[in-house]
Amino acid sequence: xxxxxxxxxxxxxxxxxxxxxxxxxxxxxxxxxxxxxxxxxxxxxxxxxxxxxxxxxxxxxxxxxxxxxxxxxxxxxxxxxxxxxxxxxxx
Length: 91
Hints:
The protein is of the alpha+beta class. It has one domain (3-78): Viral Envelope Glycoprotein, domain 2, CATH 3.30.67. It contains 3 helices and 4 strands, in the order ααββββα. A 4-stranded antiparallel sheet has the order 1-2-3-4, with helices on both faces. The longest helix has 11 residues, at 11-21. It is globular.
C-alpha cells in the first residue's frame, strides 16, 4: 500500500493499520496535540490526538523526507558517536 492509498481509507481502517502493523518511532506534544510517528511498509504515518483526552483527530501518511525532517532533528545520536575513533580519509 502507498501513502496516498492509506490516506484514502476511512479513519477507522487507518487506525487499525497503524496500531496493528505500524512501528512507533517517536512522539511529541505540539499545539495541544500529541503527535505520534509510525513507520508502515515504505511510508510514515502521523497520528494526531488531543493531549487533554486522547481523542483521535487525524492520521496522515507521507513518504517525503521534508515531512520527516522535524522528527529527524529531534533524534539524539550522541551516544553513537565515539570521538576516540579516527577515520582515515582515502585521498
